[in-house]
Amino acid sequence: MGGVPVRGRAVGELLRRWRQERRLSQLELSARCDVSTRHLSCIETGRARPSSEMVLRLGEHLQIPLRERNEALLAAGHAPVYPERALEAAALAHVAAALRLVLDRHEPYPAVVLNRWWEVVDANAAVPALLDGVAPDLLEPPLNVLRLTLHSRGLAPRLLNLPRWRAHLLLQLDRRIAATGDDRLRSLRSEVRAYPAPAGEGPEPSEPSEHDTVLPMVLRVGESTVSMFSIAAALSTAGDVTLDELTVESFYPSDDASAGVLARLLPGATAAGTRR
């Protein structure tokens, strides 16, 4: 189905589309939510208006993102229950401090905090050294990692395994669109898919090398080459829309040579790779 468009739809239609996206029958969902199949059918067809508690229960079992749960509540005539605050807000100060600690402690390796649209919310001091030569307009906020990586004036010319890394990013984008139904992500997909495809890219991602234990991002940095893999982490118990949409992506060197290069690139590092 390619995601669930949510705006401008009746709540029953929204919930039905989410159920279909999650590949659940009415019988399966009703059993999980402890509600009769008949009542669920009435909700989906508009013959019954769900309570806010029912919308939230269905949203939980359908794994609907918090932003879209709020929209479903509005569609059902109820007030949203999940706040959306800036990360700088006092209520989020402890989480923001924890994220900053994660970024700082990850140096000399790069790490970023991204929002739903792959925009950089925060980054550690190891990131800027990898961006040398990127067109200034691509670095203007909000800095979008997909544009930055795949654009011909971004990192793409220095990505030594661009076809495979591009296929990986586009697959992640498709999965997030399916998970969220977000129109901004659809627009982003149309944009980045229109960038010139690298030579050697076929309709399917190329086969991994027998030497790869994980898919690396192989980047030329000056006269050196850095090979990195990433680990993404998210808050598992977020009750705020902003926090629900954040991801911390931490990059690790794939080999000792890359570890040495990253250590030397960190601002203030000595020749041995440690900070002054």
* Overall number of domains: 2
Secondary-structure element order, N to C: HHHHHHEEHHHEEHEH
Radius of gyration: 22 Å
Q: Describe the biggest sheet?
A: 5 strands, antiparallel
Beta-strand level of the residues, as a percent range?
A: 5-15%
Mean of the pLDDT scores?
Answer: 90
CATH level 3 topology of the largest domain: Beta-Lactamase
Helix content: 40-55%
Assigned CATH class of the largest domain:
Alpha Beta
Strand order of the largest sheet: 2-1-5-4-3
Ends: how far apart? Answer: 54 Å
Could you please describe the fold and organization of this structure?
With 276 residues, this protein is α+β, with helices and mostly antiparallel strands. It has two domains: 11-75, Orthogonal Bundle (434 Repressor (Amino-terminal Domain)); 90-265, 2-Layer Sandwich (Beta-Lactamase), CATH 3.30.450.180. It is built from eleven helices and five strands, in the order H-H-H-H-H-H-E-E-H-H-H-E-E-H-E-H. The chain has a five-stranded antiparallel β-sheet with strand order 2-1-5-4-3. A hairpin with a 2-residue loop joins strand 3 and strand 4. Helix 4 (52-61) packs antiparallel against helix 5. The longest helix has 19 residues, at 162-180. The radius of gyration is 22 Å and the shape is elongated.
